[in-house]
Amino acid sequence: MVALFIDSANRADVTRLLGTGLFAGVTTNPEIIEKAGLRSRDIPDIVDWASTAGARQVFVQSWGRSPQEIADRGEELRRLGPNVTVKVPASSEGISAARLLAGGGSVLVTAVYSAAQVIPIMSTGATYLAPFVGRMDARGRDGMAEVRSIQNAIDASGSELQVLAGSLRTPQQVLDLATAGVQNATFSPAVWDSFFTDELTAESVERFEHLASA
Questions:
Q1: Residue % of the chain over a pLDDT of 70
Q2: Deepest in the core among 126, 151, 155, 210, taking most CB within 10 A?
Q3: C-alpha angle with apex 152: 101 to 32, nearest 5 degrees?
Q4: pLDDT score for 123
């Protein structure tokens, strides 16, 4: 089964989707937080209301100029709640920080744009890596092919690292990832809503309602 996560820091949207009981949690990063009209200082509040709404995991990204600075801030973020997973970027500094953080809880390495990046990430002991499928496609790379290669490398090596695919644009991408064996996917509320826009389904639902109420 694919674990689903909400890629948003908009409280109304996140609360609505968590209310379905179908999502495991919430993924954020500085860009997502800014898009919601928030700032880094709002992270404790985000973790609080998302957890209250039912998020079993809340992914929060650390930052800094050195591995130690990223790791130290990651430890601070972990203290916000037992369900916080620290995110670090797939940079040289971020990879080193992931190694420092891996012994104390779950870690996600984010902003993965190449299948080859899975090799150093597997060595860190990180729990997840997040390839940006849609953004790879936008830059002329085949995002789905890169993710398949990542998943194949993980499976072949016997690593416990999990893919949490992000930057997804369509329900079809989520389906393709599940077919490839990817265990986790995060996407915006708009992508979730588009799962329910099939016109044939809508016609059937309307007919069922009409006949049932006749």
A1: 100
A2: 126
A3: 50
A4: 97
Owning domain of residue 205: 3-213
Q: Which residues are catalytic?
A: 87
pLDDT at 154: 98
Both tokens of 14, joined, read 């996140």
How far is residue 138's CA from residue 76's CA, in Å, rounded to a whole number? 34
On the question of pLDDT at 38 being above 90, the answer is yes
C-alpha–C-alpha distance, residues 10 and 198, integer Å:
26
CATH number (domain holding residue 71): 3.20.20.70
What's the pTM? 0.96
- In this prediction, residues 187-212 reach a mean pLDDT of 95
Contacts of 120 (CB under 8 A, 6+ apart): 95
Q: What SS3 class is residue 36? A: coil
- Collect contacts of 157-163 with beta carbons under 8 A, ≥24 apart: 157/122, 159/122, 160/127, 161/118, 161/121, 161/122, 161/126, 161/127, 161/128, 161/129, 162/127, 162/128, 162/129, 163/128, 163/129, 163/130, 163/131
Question: Can you read off the two tokens belonging to residue 202?
Answer: 């809508």
Identify which of 132, 129, 180, 186 has the alpha carbon closest to the alpha carbon of residue 159: 129
Smallest CA-to-CA distance from 36 within 12, 63, 60 is with 12
Residue 214's pLDDT band, with cuts at 50, 70 and 90, is: confident
Number of domains in the chain: 1
The single-letter DSSP state of residue 19 is T
Is the predicted pLDDT of residue 68 greater than 90, yes or no? yes
